[in-house]
Amino acid sequence: MDDLYKEQILDHYKNPRQKGQIEPSDYSFEDENPLCGDFLHIDLKVDEKGVITDAKFEGHGCAISMASADLLLESLLGKTIEETKKLSKEDILDMLGIELSPVRLKCALLSLKVTKAAAYELKEADDNLME
Ligand code: FES
């Protein structure tokens, strides 16, 4: 089972579906993983009902952080901003489906932090968003 998830992670890392920028976007945020300096920028576009119609990311980082961003943004299409605010660490870990060490956990949760900060329209990132 683990191998299947690893394959999925590598596939999203090598062939990201949601890579790019949205100009103009409705919600944007960017931040880095302080442990390694890897960086993630996320743009979201919503319709008049607050439903996410497009979600894109740019950045550089390890396979886990980039695949997690791609999987997360793909899963957001059709969801609302309010639903995005309720995402949890478990949602991301379920999507990735592999056991992660504490360091790798930070890699995986960078996308959650940046996406939720965008949804909440924060000016500064907050580590509590990764819970
Ligand atoms: Fe930097 Fe994973 S090593 S985000």
Give a description of the structure:
The model has no long low-confidence stretch (mean pLDDT 95). The protein has a single domain (2-123), classed as Alpha-Beta Complex (Sufe protein. Chain: A). Helix 2 packs parallel to helix 5. The protein is 44% helix and 18% strand. The protein has helices spanning 2-14, 63-76, 81-85, 89-96, 102-119, and strands at 27-32, 39-46, 52-60. It is an alpha+beta fold and 131 residues long. A hairpin with a 5-residue loop joins strand 2 and strand 3 (52-60). It has a three-stranded antiparallel beta sheet, with helices on one face. The protein has five helices and three strands, in the order αβββαααα. The protein is globular, with a radius of gyration of 13 Å. The structure holds FE2/S2 (inorganic) cluster. Residues 33, 36, 38, 61-62, 64-65, 107, 110 line the site of FE2/S2 (inorganic) cluster. FE2/S2 (inorganic) cluster is lined by residues 33, 36, 38, 61-62, 64-65, 107, 110.
Into which percent range does the helicity of residues fall? Answer: 40-55%
Ligand species: FE2/S2 (inorganic) cluster
Number of helical stretches of at least 4 residues: 5
Strand order of the largest sheet: 1-2-3
Structural class: alpha+beta
| Major beta-sheet overview | 3 strands, antiparallel
Average of pLDDT: 95
- Going by CATH, the architecture would be Alpha-Beta Complex
Distance between the termini: 25 Å
